[in-house]
Design brief:
The complex is a heterodimer of chains A (1149) and B (117). Chain A has 1149 residues and is an alpha/beta fold. Among the domains of chain A are: 2-144, no CATH class; 157-326, P-loop containing nucleotide triphosphate hydrolases (Rossmann fold, 3-Layer(aba) Sandwich), CATH 3.40.50.300; 333-512, Rossmann fold (3-Layer(aba) Sandwich); 517-577. In chain A, the strands form seven sheets. A seven-stranded parallel beta sheet of chain A has the order 4-5-3-6-7-2-8, sandwiched between helices. In chain A, strands 14, 15, 17, 18, 19, 22 and 23 form a seven-stranded mixed beta sheet that branches. Chain B is an alpha+beta fold and 117 residues long. Chain B has one domain (12-116). In chain B, 21% of the residues lie in helices and 28% in strands. Chain B has two helices and nine strands, in the order E-E-E-E-E-E-E-E-E-H-H. Chain B has helices at residues 87-92, 99-116; strands at residues 12-14, 21-23, 26-28, 37-39, 43-47, 57-63, 70-72, 78-80, 84-86. Chain B has a four-stranded antiparallel beta sheet, with no helix packed on it. A two-stranded antiparallel ribbon of chain B has the order 1-2. In chain B, a hairpin with a 6-residue loop joins strand 6 and strand 7. The N and C termini of chain B lie far apart (35 Å). The chains are: A alpha/beta (1149), B alpha+beta (117). Chains A and B meet through helix 4, strand 1 and helix 6 of A and strand 2, strand 4, strand 5, strand 6 and helix 2 of B. Strand 1 (99-101) of chain A pairs antiparallel with strand 4 of chain B, so a sheet runs across the interface. One zinc ion binds next to strand 9 and helix 1 of chain B. Chain A: Residues 57-85, 715-768, 1087-1112 are annotated as: Disordered. Chain A: This is Probable ATP-dependent RNA helicase DHX34.
Chain lengths: 1149, 117
């Protein structure tokens, strides 16, 4: 038998071996399609379909009679003298394919007689090639179809008509305003028009990070990736920017930071500022900066893009810039005013009445058949309102089975938020109950009905109480229109307004811009560092109230970021470069000085993101129990620290298992991912500012094998990430009718539910957690574990120091527990801040559930009278936020020992003559029982502060150089200081009372300045070198002596005569032999300079410490003293001066 | 429009019938990095944007073999039958095309008219 025939008989298209033989011919390693690839798999499945189709066609017969007829026709035509197209006589579908595949290998096989060699013969090869041609043609048609569809969509956008006009305007004018409503396509198209017109180095700002990513992806896609890496984005954690980038999407805040580095923005030719109508703080400021920047960059092109809101404002601000207005693409929307009848109006303290909302749902069910699709979007002011209405709607939905009720607000977990994009089953509508987040930030397609409560909760800042306030307001007409518009995106819609038309007419035209509502601290700090001059005279598009600016300046002074003249301090200029809140920046800087960087990084990151503890789950007893070991009664930052550390440990041990771990504890894992990213960014920031030593010999190095393994793992992770990205978008699932019922009431069931939902799409075989993949790509878990282990189970000494750092960072945000708290119920504990009395602890704080730890222990107090309780255990709270909702709440609190912390961080400490009475920041009064002890505590605090300040300044000064070898501040000196601070914090045993001053007391607090004459009469005791660098002068306002920038001696109204000899008491210095009668001030002065003999020696000997030691302990202690009696200049320490003077005193007597 | 002047910085293909435009990266019969693949006409091509991972080409269009009009490969604009024909030329010489194609076009015309009316 000939091998050819036997092969032909045994050739089986379904056999993998046979196919593999063809793979060897067509799909080799360098071919267009390679064996094993996705395309290859698709080819073979196409092949099967193609073969089936061919068989079917062959069976039905191709009709040869027709063929003849056609040929006949063709001949006829040729006779008629027309152009001959010279087309083949027989129709063959393959003539319609413009691709051919040909290699020598194929040719050879096809030309073979079919004898002698193994593998596919001519027939098989030819069949396969034909199928391949059809497959290529099919793929081409598919891709081209997508392209054509994309182009059709682009053309149908309203803005398309204006593309050449836009380009033309931009060419001719430095500033152009493009105004168009949602859906006109401006954000995606304008950058593309500019790119294709030849502009490059384009930056486009967005108020939201997420928009930067999605726009970069979209524009890159729409421009067919032709620009490849030329379209990129840059946000807080990540960037895709390369040198080839021509169009960059970035946040407003980031562009501002870039201006700080590159004052003329030379890196860009075109700036597009999108969504200017949203009037975010950063955006308003950015516009102001750009306005002045344009003068030095006449070539720069600026395009402002806005909704059709208040366009004239922007045009006028930029010298009547031309405006191009693009009509939006909205379907008609019917507006129905349905004001809430008075009996259903909620009174101030009551919950919302759900009846008006339910009536609308009912009305929709009656009026519109369920098969007409269209969801409902309901706007309410806040989370509490949402859950009230959600509950009522859910009852209705369960009953009718025609609705799925979903809440939407920013404090929901990401997964819960995501549900609003899923689709509902047929005959069922989604009822999305949202805050104003759905007004502009989140766009949900398929909404046909909008219900607008007309209310919004907005954050405002009260500069007087130093407090943020979340208040409910009527919305503006602009917001109202925006909400309405959400009903007409995909078809005609209906908007129900729960207010009267006359209310609408009375609304403000536009929302209050953010710059009028928020604290301006960061803004002012940034302005200072950008040398923009007096913030009061800066030309804002809509200037903030002067009081707000003034409050910010004062606050920054209190924080130590600005000096008394309003100029940036060295810490201030560093803070201005950190893209975080001032308090958080301060914490980072302080943490970097001591060996507490790791925990401070974590706490700073935790303060910058939303709490990972989901509100709803904390009411679930199981979650609460599971969370218990994470709680620390030292304060919320420690709970957050424990939580983060525990999570990192779980990640190290169980990787993706952390998801379950979080769910069991009611933690939103997304926040922990944010924290770990932010933490990494903070670390990089500190490193780049030379505030952190680079890690020596990275433990990740490992041997070659380990490195290779890690590399392989990374490659795998990248693959997973890509696969995920491809899957994204095609993932919308259909909601179940029960969806809404589970959500809020018991988040515990979330576990089960998520598991169920995921099963059906486990097609890819493994349950991939993309967050885990990204986490692994970004972080080295073992390195992170190591870093974290440092801050795990901090010894109490470290804990005390960390608390002090947090307190200094957060200062002046301090609160005093009310003196009667121990007699009150747990839920009625009251606190006071300097500017706001009667605030409470937020229920999420550890001190809300465990307030006893703040009480002064009974057995230690000594009643000194009706209003005075002495103890050595008084505490104050340092807090991150004071926010008033229905009550003023403190959140993220940490407790610190009152006397010690206040003496170490307060900006103003005033004393009476014997220093037994102290007033801190003009509102807290401390009375110490023993003057002796009081003096000692004060003197220690002054010394510690001076040392601390000195080291901090040294650290900040050397930081820009960033050379780690030349560490100006030696480790030993810092260790010494931290030890002394800890000793002071933990072992100061002195009894004192602590209370707020009354308004009357504050008025008559100081003795006031003494008349000149009186001063000159008395010999001023030598007080100058109280401690290094200090100069004591009479305080011009308070009276007494200003000893340091923060301490004024003997200025309180009950003070005795400053120079009275009766203040002198005999005293023995514990460190030297000195024994003589000294005034309190003289004693402090001595104590500041006199060190225990051993300590001093040690300092001197240490060569490493030479630099600091010479500057702070030896040389600065001696100074030139001119003795009038001896008439001689003496180089003495202050103690020696005292001794010297005493000598004369006694000798004269 | 001259499409094959490779000097222009941004090479753009535009279909003269439907107006579809797109940048193209290659004009010719041999798409880059494709080994055995040869095109049977000179085409405007770009990198397939819909499979960004892989190096795939996408034919945008070519010139009509009769009138040299530049047309895209969309079914409304051109037809390939051993050569490229723009729709105008196809309609002019419809009778020379095989039955299958004539029937197909007639059917398409009908359905598009139905859609319009
Ligand atoms: Zn076309
Ligand atoms: Zn033609």
């Amino acid at each position: 038998m000939s091998s050819g025939r036997s092969r032909h008989r045994t050739w089986d298209w379904d056999s993998p071996q046979c196919r593999a033989q063809l793979d060897e011919v067509f799909f080799r390693r360098h071919d267009y399609i390679q064996a094993g690839s996705q395309d290859h798999k698709e080819f073979w499945s196409f092949f099967d379909r193609f073969q089936r189709f061919k068989t079917k066609r062959d069976m039905s017969g191709s009709g040869s009679s027709r063929k003849e007829a056609r040929e006949q026709e063709g001949r006829d035509k040729r006779k008629s003298g027309k152009v001959d197209l010279d087309l083949p006589k027989d129709y063959d579908a393959r003539y319609r394919i413009n691709v051919s595949v040909c290699t020598r290998d194929i040719e050879e096989r096809m030309g073979r007689s079919g004898k002698g060699s193994s593998g596919p013969g001519p027939q098989e090869t030819s069949d396969c090639r034909l199928a391949l041609l059809h497959f290529l043609d099919f793929s081409q048609k598919q891709s081209f179809g997508k392209l054509a569809k994309l182009r059709r969509e682009q053309k149908s956008l309203p803005i398309y008509q204006y593309r050449s006009r836009i380009v033309d305007l931009v060419r001719r004018h430095p500033v152009v305003v493009v105004a168009g409503d949602t859906g006109c396509g401006k954000s995606t198209q304008v950058p593309q028009y500019l790119l294709s017109a030849g502009f490059h180095n384009i930056a486009c700002t967005q108020p939201r990070r997420i928009a930067c990513i999605s726009l970069a992806k979209r524009v890159s896609f729409e421009s067919l990736n032709q620009y490849g890496s030329k379209v990129g984005y840059q946000i807080r954690f990540e960037t895709t920017r390369t040198t080839a980038t021509k169009l960059l999407f970035l946040t407003e805040g980031l562009l501002l930071r870039q201006i700080q580095q590159d004052t003329t923005l030379a890196q860009y030719n075109v700036l597009i500022v999108d969504e200017v109508h949203e009037r975010h703080l950063h955006c308003d400021f950015l516009l102001g900066v750009l306005r002045s920047l344009l003068a030095s960059r006449p070539d720069l092109r600026l395009i402002l893009m806005s909704a059709t809101i208040n366009i004239k404002l922007f045009s006028d601000y930029f010298n009547s810039a031309p405006v191009l207005q693009v009509p939006g693409r909205l379907f008609p929307i019917q507006v129905i005013y349905q004001p809430i009848p008075s009996e259903e109006q909620p009174s101030r303290s009551e919950k919302l009445d759900p009846r008006p909302y339910l009536r609308i749902l009912q009305g929709i069910d009656q009026r519109y058949p369920p098969e007409e699709r269209g969801d409902l979007l309901l706007f309410l002011s806040g989370v509490a309102e949402i859950s009230t209405i959600q509950e009522a709607c859910q009852v209705y939905a369960t009953h009718t089975r025609r609705w799925i009720v979903l809440p939407l607000h920013s404090t929901l977990s990401v997964a819960q938020q995501d549900k609003v994009f899923d689709t509902s089953p047929p005959g069922v509508r989604k009822c999305i109950i949202s805050t104003n987040i759905a007004e502009t930030s989140v766009t949900i397609d398929g909404v046909r009905f909008v219900v607008d409560s007309g209310k919004v909760k907005e954050m405002s800042f009260d500069p007087k109480a130093k407090m943020q306030r979340l208040q409910e307001f009527w919305i503006s007409r602009a917001s109202s229109e925006q909400r309405k518009g959400r009903a007409g995106r995909t078809g005609p819609g209906v908007c129900y307004r729960l207010y009267a038309e006359s209310d609408y007419d009375a609304f403000a035209p536009y929302p209050v811009p953010e710059i009028h509502r928020v604290a301006l601290d960061s803004l002012i700090l940034q302005m200072k560092s950008m040398h923009l001059g007096d913030p009061l005279s800066f030309v804002f598009i809509d200037p903030p109230p002067a009081a707000s600016i003034q409050a910010a300046v004062t606050y920054l002074k209190e924080q130590g970021a600005l000096d008394s003249r309003g100029e940036l301090t060295s810490i201030g200029s560093l803070l201005a470069q950190l893209p975080v809140d001032v308090v958080i920046g301060k914490m980072l800087v302080l943490g970097s000085l001591f060996n507490l960087v790791e925990p401070v990084l974590t706490v700073a990151a935790a303060f910058s993101v939303q709490s990972p503890f989901l509100r709803s789950s904390q009411q679930n007893p199981d979650c609460a129990t599971a969370c218990q070991p994470l709680h620390s009664n030292q304060g919320d930052p420690f709970t957050l620290l424990n939580t983060f550390n525990a999570w990192v440990e779980v990640k190290g041990e169980r990787g993706g298992g952390s998801r379950k771990w979080c769910r069991r504890r009611g933690l939103e894992e997304q926040r922990l991912y944010e924290m770990v990213n932010l933490r990494r960014q903070f670390r990089d920031l500190l490193k780049s500012h030379g505030l952190m030593e680079p890690v020596y010999s990275a433990p990740s190095g490992g041997d070659r094998k380990q490195r290779r393994e890690r590399l392989t793992e990374r490659r795998k992770l990248h693959q997973l990430k890509r696969e995920h990205e491809q899957l994204e978008g095609s993932r919308r699932k259909v909601l179940r009718l029960e969806e809404g019922q589970e959500g809020d009431l018991s988040s515990g069931s979330d576990t089960e539910e998520a598991g169920k939902g995921r099963k059906d799409k486990a097609g890819s075989g493994q349950n991939m957690d993309i967050q885990e993949v990204k986490f692994k790509l970004r972080h080295n878990v073992s390195e992170l574990q190591e870093a974290v282990s440092i801050s795990q189970d901090l010894p109490s000494r470290q804990q005390a120091l960390l608390k002090l750092l947090l307190c200094r960072g957060l200062y002046p945000q301090l609160a005093l527990p009310d003196e009667h708290n121990s007699n009150r119920k747990d839920s009625e504990q009251v606190f006071h801040t300097r500017n706001k009395q009667g605030v409470v602890i937020h229920p999420t704080s550890v001190f809300a559930s465990d307030p006893e730890v703040l009480h002064v222990p009974e057995d230690e107090t000594r009643e000194m009278g009706p209003d005075r309780r002495d103890s050595s255990r008084h505490q104050v709270l340092a807090f991150v936020t004071l926010l008033e909702t229905n009550k003023p709440y403190l959140s993220n609190c940490v407790r610190v020992p009152a006397l010690q912390a206040l003496l170490l961080v307060a900006n103003s400490i005033d004393s009476n003559a014997d220093c037994a009475r102290l007033v801190v920041d003009g509102w807290l009064e401390l009375e110490l029982r023993e003057a002796e002890g009081a003096l000692k505590v004060l003197a220690t605090a002054l010394t510690l502060r001076a040392e601390w300040e000195h080291l901090l300044q040294a650290q900040l000064k050397q930081s820009p150089a960033g050379e780690p070898e030349v560490q100006g501040v030696s480790r030993r000196v810092i260790e010494k200081l931290s030890e002394n601070l800890v000793r002071f914090l933990l072992y100061t045993e002195i009894s004192y009372s602590l209370r707020r001053l009354t308004a009357f007391q504050t008025q008559n607090l100081y003795i006031g300045p003494r008349p000149e004459s009186e001063l000159s009469q008395t010999e001023i005791p030598d007080l100058k070198p109280l401690f290094p660098g200090a100069e004591a002068k009479p305080d011009p306002i308070k009276g007494g002596l200003r000893v340091t920038s923060f301490f004024t001696y003997n200025c309180l109204a009950d003070s005795k005569d400053l120079y009275s000899e009766c203040l002198r008491t005999f005293w023995t210095c514990p460190n030297c032999d000195l024994y003589m009668p000294l005034t309190p001030l003289e004693r402090m002065q001595h104590e500041a300079s006199c060190r225990p003999a051993g300590e001093q020696q040690q300092l001197d000997k240490d060569p490493e410490d030479e630099k600091v030691a010479t500057s702070s302990s030896v040389s600065s202690l001696t100074r030139v003293y001119h003795c009038d009696v001896c008439n001689e200049d003496l180089n003495l320490t202050s103690t020696e001066i005292l001794k010297h003077k005493r000598q004369h005193m006694y000798s004269t007597k | 429009m001259e499409h094959n002047t490779t000097e222009t910085p941004q090479k753009t293909f535009t279909c003269q019938l439907c107006g579809l435009t797109s940048p193209f990266t290659y004009y010719g019969q041999k798409p880059p990095n494709t080994r055995a693949i040869v095109l049977l006409e000179e085409c405007f091509m770009t990198k397939d944007p819909f499979c960004p991972e892989k190096e795939k080409f996408l034919v945008l269009g070519s010139n009509c073999s009769l009138c040299s009009m530049c047309v895209c490969v969309g079914l409304d604009c051109s037809l390939f039958y051993t050569k490229r024909f723009c729709m105008q030329c196809v309609n002019k010489h419809l009778d020379q095309f095989p039955h299958q194609i004539q029937a197909e076009l007639a059917k398409k015309r009908q359905s598009s008219q139905a859609a319009v009316s």
